Amino acid sequence: MAERPLWDDLKEVIVFYGEHGRDFPLGELASPDELVKQFEEAVAQGLDAFARERQYDNMDKARLAALTVDFKADGDYANQLYDRVWSAAFALEEQIRTGTITINDALAALPEMVWPES
Hints:
Blueprint: H1 6-19, H2 32-52, H3 59-64, H4 72-98, H5 103-108
């Protein structure tokens, strides 16, 4: 009798976790720490995309604008938003680690990222 490939067992585990609130594609088994890392990467990418809406290369450059005269308001707002988003993200990480919230749901729970009217 041939042994059952280990991959078949892993697929069953992946399907189980996928059905119980963990949102990763079939074929990728992620540890709780890896899920948190994926979440943090998604948060950082979202902040960078937000900064690019105002032609900044990334969120770090938008935050540095607070040190300038002409773009101080943008920089101040970027710093405030950065703090709010990361504070909320860090508060959600334990729920991601324990599987009580998916990465997608955690991202949806973060503060809205909208630039104020100029």
